[in-house]
């Protein structure tokens, strides 16, 4: 009986620790899973030294697009696209912390230091949009790029 109580207490303690760690970090990036199949287009973007590589991205309107973000820096970054209305596909809300208040149609991927995140979405809204890191000072330091939906 004592062993069972110890195992239950240990499990509860670990669960509390995981929840506390997630809250302290402002949330974590989660990988978006496409329901019902694979995306039409996959775009890989890396973040390093306050830069996006590539810093220009082109996607087709009406297609299911998965953007994978790999943060190769020792600090958090995100990828925000203002003005582009999207329909998220799957489970992939990669938001948290300073992103409170964003709408479900906002394109945003937050990545912790040296981690990955992704978002899978569709949009019909053609145009050219700036993407940037919204963390203080990062955009001003040149962490910007351009997404074209055609």
Textual characterization of the structure:
The protein is of the alpha+beta class. The chain has a single domain (28-149), classed as Immunoglobulin-like, CATH 2.60.40.420. The chain contains 1 helix and 10 strands; from the N terminus they run αββββββββββ. The chain has one helix at 2-24; strands spanning 41-48, 51-53, 56-59, 65-71, 77-81, 87-88, 107-111, 116-122, 127-132, 144-149. Strands 2-1-4-8-6 form a 5-stranded mixed β-sheet, with no helix packed on it. A 5-stranded mixed β-sheet has the order 3-10-9-5-7, with no helix packed on it. The radius of gyration is 18 Å and the shape is globular.
Which properties best describe this structure?
alpha+beta, 10 strands, 150 residues, 5-stranded mixed beta sheet, Immunoglobulin-like
Helices and strands in order:
Blueprint: H1 2-24, E1 41-48, E2 51-53, E3 56-59, E4 65-71, E5 77-81, E6 87-88, E7 107-111, E8 116-122, E9 127-132, E10 144-149
Parallel strand pairs: 1-4, 3-10
Antiparallel strand pairs: 1-2, 4-8, 5-7, 5-9, 6-8, 9-10
């Amino acid at each position: 009986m004592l062993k069972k109580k110890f195992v239950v207490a240990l499990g509860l303690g670990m669960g509390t620790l995981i929840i506390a760690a997630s809250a302290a970090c402002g949330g974590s990036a989660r990988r978006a899973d496409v329901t019902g199949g694979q995306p039409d287009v996959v775009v890989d973007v890396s973040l390093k030294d306050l830069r996006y590589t590539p810093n220009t991205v082109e996607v087709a309107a009406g297609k299911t697009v998965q953007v994978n973000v790999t943060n190769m820096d020792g600090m958090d970054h995100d990828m925000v696209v203002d003005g582009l209305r999207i329909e998220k596909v799957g489970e992939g809300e990669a938001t948290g912390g300073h992103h409170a208040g964003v709408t479900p149609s906002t394109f945003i991927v937050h990545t912790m230091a040296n981690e990955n995140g992704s978002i899978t979405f569709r949009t019909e809204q053609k145009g050219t949009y700036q993407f940037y890191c919204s963390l203080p000072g990062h955009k001003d330091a040149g962490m910007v790029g351009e997404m074209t939906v055609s």
